[in-house]
Structures are given as C-alpha cells and as structure tokens.
Amino acid sequence: MGHLPDVLPIDRDRLHLPDDPAVLHRDQQRRARMARLGIRPHFGVSRRTRGLRGGAPAERRASARAGRRCTAAVVGIADRGMSAAASRKRPTMTNSAAPDVCPMSNHSERPSMATQLASPPGPKGLPGLGVALKFGRDMYGYLPGLAREYGDVVSVPVPGRTMVLISHPDHIEEVLFAKNDRYWHAPAEMREALLPGQPPAIVVREGEDWKRARRVLNPRFSERSLAGVSELIGSAVSDGVEDWRRFADTGKPVELQDELGIVIMSALLRSMFTRRFSREHILTFVKQFGTHGEYAIRGLFTRIVLAGVPFGLGTKIPPHEVPWPHLAKRKANFADLLGQIDTLIAEHREHSGDASDLLALMLAARFDDGTGFTHEEIRSEAGGVLFAGFDTTAYALAWTIGLLAKNPEPLQKAYAEVDALGGGPIGYEQIPQLPYLRHCFDEAQRLQGAPINARVAKEDDVIGGYAIPAGTIVIHSPYGLHRDPRFWTDPDRFHPDRFATDHIGKYAFIPFGAGPRRCMGIRMAYIEGVLALANILQRYQFHVPPTWQPEHRFALATGLKSLPVTLSSR
Ligand code: HEM
Questions:
Q1: Is 60 exceeded by the pLDDT of residue 45?
Q2: Which ligand 1 atom lies nearest to the CA of residue 385?
Q3: 3-class SS at 161?
Q4: Ligand 1 first shell, C-beta below 6 A
Q5: How do residues 250-286 score in pLDDT, each as one tens digit?
Q6: Whose CA is nearest to atom 31 of ligand 1?
Q7: Cis omega (within 30 of 0) for bond into 323
Q8: Residue 61 pLDDT > 70
C-alpha cells in the first residue's frame, strides 16, 4: 500500500500519538538527553499551560512568574482566585509545609525526598470511613469541589488506602507521561474486575509485558491500518443509521443512546470479524458487555474507594460482593461472552483466510522472536477491544447528539458542513472535509468528562512539593479538569469552535487519557464518531424534549441518564 495521507487531522504533537516505541518514548528520550547534558526539564507552569486562554492577563503574568521560579506548589495559588479559607489551607513557599528546594526542578529527584515532605492538605472525613460516602454519592462534583477548596494536590481519605487527587495539567503530565514508569496503570483490582481468571488484554497489562503487546498492536490501530478497515466501519455505521428510518416521522421518542450503542457495536464487530451481524445478535453483545461493565465498575469502585465501607451502603454504588447470586450471574454472563468470542474466532480462522479485518491484523501480529499471541490472549485482546471501544464511543456520540440538539447555532453549522458534501454516501475519504463535526465530538467529550482516572505509585514520589508514598492511588478528574475555568473560557458553554480557535493545553483535554497508556483506539473512535455524526445529520432532524438536560450516568464510560430523541427525515 502506498503512502496514505493522514485522513484524520490529528495533531500528533498535541496528542502524543505513539505509533511505534520510538515515538512512544521520544519525549522521554529527549528529557533523558537533556538531563545528561545538565539541562533541567521544565515542569513548572509550562508554556502550553501559560498560553491557555481563560485567565486574566494579570493572573497569567503571576502564573508565569511562578513558573520561572519553578514552584508547582505555588502555581495553584498564583493561577486561581481563591476564597480566604481556601488560601489559608493551601501552602505557600513561606508555609512551613513547603519544601525549601524546588521539588519540580529536577525530574530525577531522589524518592527518599518524599519521606521528608508534608502530605497534601485535604478533608479529614469520618473516622473509619474518610470521605468514601460523600465521594460515592457525588462521583462527578465531589473531586472538583475538593480541588477548589484545597488546591491542586489534595489528600482524599478513604478507608485502608492513601489517595491523592491531582488537578493541574502539569501534575497530570508528570504522572501520565514523564514519570509513567513509576506508576502502575492496572492494579490487581482492575485486572480482577475486568478479566477475572483470563490472560490480560492490553488495557490491564503492565511493564514489559504491556510494552511488548502495545508494540505489536499499536500499528494495527494506526491511520494506515485503519484505512484498510474503514470501509467495514463506514458500511456498518451507514447501515445502522439507515435502520433508524423505522423510528423517524413517528412522533415517538426513541432512546437514542441505546441505538447508538447498537450502531457502534455493529461497526466494531464488522471491523473485527468482517461479518454482518443481525440486530438480535448485536443486541446480545451489547447486553453482555453492558452487564460485564456494570459488574466491573462496581467491583473496581467498591474494592478501591469503598474498601472498608460495609456493603458500600449509603452510596450510589450497590454492593459488589453481596448478595451472592449477583456474582453467579456475573460469572455466567462472562463465561457466555467468552464462549461467543471463541466461536467467532474459530469461524474466522476457518473461513476468512484473506480477510483484512482487525482480527486478521491481530492474528498476524508477531513479537521479536517470531511468535504471536496465544488463542487465549487473542480472545482477551479481541474482547478487550470490543469492550474498550463500545460504550466509550457510543456515549461520546450520545453526548454530542444531545448537546447539538440543545444548541441550535452549532447544530446549523454542523448541518451546513454535511450538506456541503452534496448528499452522496459519506465514508472515510470525506472525513477531512468534516472538521466541525470533529470539534463537536471533542467539545461534547470535554463536557462529558470521566469522573476519575487513576494510577498507583510504585515507589515514593513527590508531586507539587508533597510526599506521595509508594502505594498511593493518585487520581485525577477529567470531568473537573475539562471544566476548570483556569484552562477553559466559558467552560460550561457548548462551543465546538473553541477547538479551532483556542490553544487547547495538551494535558487540559484528556478524554482519551495521555502519555504512553493513552487510548490505543483513538483514531478508530474519531473515524466512527465523525462518520456516525455525518450519517445521522445527513438523514435526520432530531429533537429532545424542551426540559431535557444532559445528566451524567456513572459507568465505566460516562453515559447520559437518558437521551429521548424524536427523529424526522430530512
Ligand atoms: C470516544 C471513544 C473512546 C474514549 C473516550 C476512550 C478513552 C480511553 C481512555 C481514557 C483510556 C485509558 C487511558 C488511561 O488509563 O490513562 C483508553 C484506553 C484504551 N482504549 Fe480507548 N477510548 C475510546 C475508544 C476506543 C476504541 C474505539 C478502542 C478500540 C477499537 C479503544 C481501545 C483502547 C485500548 C486498547 C486501551 C488501552 C491502552 C493501553 O493500556 O495501552 N478505545 N481509552
């Protein structure tokens, strides 16, 4: 295949696309070179962050001064207007809690330094329970509230764990990118919740094992490879959206989030196995993955945040371990799901000799020693891709449709962009002509915002001048970050054009994560997302009830509580 232009105008630098290990670790190598030459990497207020719109000029100047002194602990104070109470709680460089050497000045600072530093400030919480109940009751609002009150690095007391919330993009860059090898991505709880008793899929692999797998899988999800499966994705999306004709012009609302789930699952299955699946078959997968996801998030949250809270009572998360019939149901569902994937792989091996779908690409993947994945690993990886790519993309689309329906001006602009294509079939080749749709997708994901992403410190560390002992769960809230007025102008407004006009900080917008563990399916998500939007806009007008507002639904991916849409043909 000749050279393919990057059809998706992804800013590689902004998004840190790791196509191969060299690119994956390019910046780390650069930093290592700088360290060898005695040049100090800069982790104070980065130019990118300083350049963000949203702060008043005076604040930005203060922020820049703070950056020159390289005092990340000061950054939160300089940048942000704070209440008197909050400023009392936050450390300053004259505060005895602050270190007398710049903790961010040298990235290779000795871990033992952590033991000499203060713990971050934070709420005390209830004896034995910490703040687990409050956190469990308000998964979205609670963490940003803590950041507003206590600053960019906050101790979050939960039973039996040390948890720290970080909220500044520079600190998030440290943990997800610069120091990523000092943090676990998938602790045992996550592996157990997602793939109980199975060989790991990439999302829960660690260390060398993860590097080895990502090295061979990453090229399979590159622009070039996906161009090869884009026809499968495009046809599934177009068929799925065309199938909505049965709901159009009836005057009756349809739960569009569920229908988007079917369209995306169909696109994933077709791109993985080439086959066309019936609506019933797709629905079975949707249900099974949905059930598995529900148990997984329940298991994860109860094991990490609510560990020690009897049955998770009083929170919105139902108990994980009891009653026992739930566990049996979970096991049966999971076994059934694995069985279905087994059958599809077996059929594929038998009948699809020259297929160029995702499964064929994964089966052809070879490690340095010439071996490939085992059957069980392929099953985990294929299931992992379906799982990781399904409700994430469907929910991001649901947010986009809902927010477009509520915002007539962006909606008209989106219609105009699609209509300018002239009415023919819309596929992969048309994507570069749809930049506004991509911005709508991004802007919706900004507001959608996952409530939490986490890493676990492998060794003692220092963040923002505070001690992070080994074993600490370091969390950040994309939801909070994406609405932080320091980094976003008018953050509550749905304004897709900001992605065309504003400078968006690399670590201020992280729906796909960041650093080497960033989403491997990002290109596929954009292909599916933009194609689905274009196909929907080309065919339908959509309306939500006048009182409808987007409400977050907590799950592995953040959905909407409901998206009742009335469709009419265009
Ligand atoms: C809008 C859609 C999507 C969103 C918002 C999303 C988001 C994410 C996030 C936040 C992570 C974890 C990053 C971290 O832990 O820091 C992730 C990882 C991952 N995603 Fe996605 N994702 C999407 C679509 C997809 C699709 C379509 C696929 C596959 C076809 C996919 C495959 C993966 C995989 C394999 C990983 C694990 C990567 C690793 O650990 O190395 N995702 N995604």
A1: no
A2: 29
A3: strand
A4: 176, 185, 202-203, 214, 384-385, 388-389, 392-393, 396, 453, 511-513, 517-521, 524-525
A5: 999 999 999 999 999 999 999 999 989 999 999 999 9
A6: 521
A7: yes
A8: no
